[in-house]
Design brief:
This is Glycosyltransferase (GT2). It comes from Formosa agariphila (strain DSM 15362 / KCTC 12365 / LMG 23005 / KMM 3901 / M-2Alg 35-1). Keywords: Membrane, Transferase, Transmembrane, Transmembrane helix. By secondary structure, this protein is α/β, with parallel strands linked by helices. The chain has 2 domains: 2-30 and 279-361, no CATH class; 44-257, Alpha-Beta Complex (Spore Coat Polysaccharide Biosynthesis Protein SpsA, Chain A), CATH 3.90.550.10. The protein has helices at 2-30, 54-65, 85-93, 114-124, 144-149, 172-193, 209-214, 230-236, 260-271, 279-304, 309-333, 343-363, and strands at residues 44-50, 72-79, 99-104, 129-134, 137-139, 158-160, 163-165, 205-208, 242-244, 252-254. Helix 1 (2-30) crosses helix 10.
């Protein structure tokens, strides 16, 4: 009975930790109303780094080039592609006069290093305000640049946006990918709003060239193959210089992975950067994840043994209900309403996947970005 008492009180503590995260941290974004900053027409450089993306570029680049914004250039970086990416760039440059092409060749020191390619592209950009997206992304509106750029001012030099994934009908994997994306966005938006910005996603991120040079570029983590987005934000973002762009018109949408193995490989690269975050960020994120795992494990064990089952069911239900409300509002805000009713079910699969990724990354290093 002593062992069961320990499990029970541990479960109670875990539930309260989870409730704290949802009601203090994650609710911040869930109940946040989009601000309407005054529109601006500051000159902007859009940065697109592509490696072997000829088909995606044909499909998605026009949605970037045809933005309704008066003063922008598009810097297209060919990161040592061995397909026709460069030819596609040149084809578009014949039709649009605001394209700047940067053709990157592999070097022995920076072989297959995206950060090296991005650095050359950023240096080539003629404007101070930079907006980043990927070759397989499309803005969800023609006012995407306008929405992002409006958040820049004399204090704000970083703008965090949302990069979602296209919906695939009747695909559980697609729902899993989109839920994990919603959960991640809910966290980094909430933390940033509370003055603890720790990451952004390169699918939809903006910062100034001045800030990039202030950080000496990616020099502090150039040896880490991933993290051109989140590690830079983790290093340079603060409560004063970071803004959020959460209007639906400011979103981007990417091509999701179509196999579980491909998605896991992608997530392994992303997760590998977390160990380089600031200690406070690692602690907060780690505690949330560990409490997620223990909530399900301890709850299931106690219910299977019928130990104080009335209290356990009550606490279990309370946490699920709060999660449903908070994450449900976040999902709707990010145009992912179809996920709401199966959020607890999706959470279990995300937790298990993250655990498998963590173990895999301890055993072997993830592969490079392409």
């Amino acid at each position: 009975m002593v062992a069961l008492d320990i499990l029970f009180y541990s479960f109670v503590a875990i539930v309260f930790i989870q409730l704290f995260y949802y009601l203090v941290f994650l609710r911040t974004f869930a109940f946040l109303k989009p601000t309407q900053p005054q529109k601006t027409e500051i000159p902007v450089s859009i940065i697109v780094c592509a490696k072997n993306e000829e088909e995606n570029l044909k499909q998605f680049l026009p949605s970037v080039l045809n933005q309704d914004y008066p003063n922008f250039e598009v810097v297209l970086i060919n990161d040592a592609s061995h397909d026709e990416t460069l030819s596609v760039f040149e084809h578009f440059s014949e039709q649009y006069n605001n394209i700047r092409i940067v053709d990157v060749k592999n070097t022995e020191a920076f072989w297959a290093n995206k950060k090296y390619a991005l650095t050359l592209g950023i240096k080539a950009a003629k404007h101070n305000h930079l907006v980043f997206t990927d070759a397989d992304c499309r803005p969800t509106s023609t006012t995407w640049i306008s929405e992002i750029a409006a958040h820049f001012n004399h204090e704000k030099s970083i703008v965090l946006g949302y990069g979602g994934y296209a919906k695939i009908k009747n695909s559980f994997l697609n729902m899993l990918i989109r839920f994990e994306t919603v959960l991640t966005a809910s966290q980094y938006f909430s933390y940033a709003k509370l003055g603890l910005p720790y990451m952004g996603v390169g699918r939809n991120l903006a910062y100034t060239k001045t800030l990039f040079f202030e950080a000496n570029g990616f020099i502090n983590h150039m040896n880490v193959r991933s993290g051109d987005d989140d590690l830079f934000v983790n290093q340079m973002a603060s409560s004063k210089n970071t803004a959020l762009s959460i209007s639906p018109e400011s979103f981007t949408e990417s091509v999701p992975k179509k196999t579980f193995g491909a998605w896991v490989k992608q997530k392994r690269r992303h997760v590998s950067t977390v160990s380089y975050y600031k200690k406070s960020h690692k602690f907060l994120l780690g505690l949330f994840y560990v409490s997620q795992i223990l909530f399900w494990i301890l709850g299931i064990v106690l219910l299977s043994l019928l130990f104080r089952w009335e209290i356990v069911i009550g606490l279990f239900t309370l946490r699920i209900l709060i999660q449903w409300i908070v994450m449900g509002k976040s999902a709707k805000k990010l145009n992912e309403s179809d996920l709401v009713f199966i959020i607890p079910f999706l959470e279990i699969f995300v937790i298990l996947t993250q655990l498998a990724i963590f173990i895999s990354n301890k055993i072997s290093k993830p592969q490079t970005w392409k």
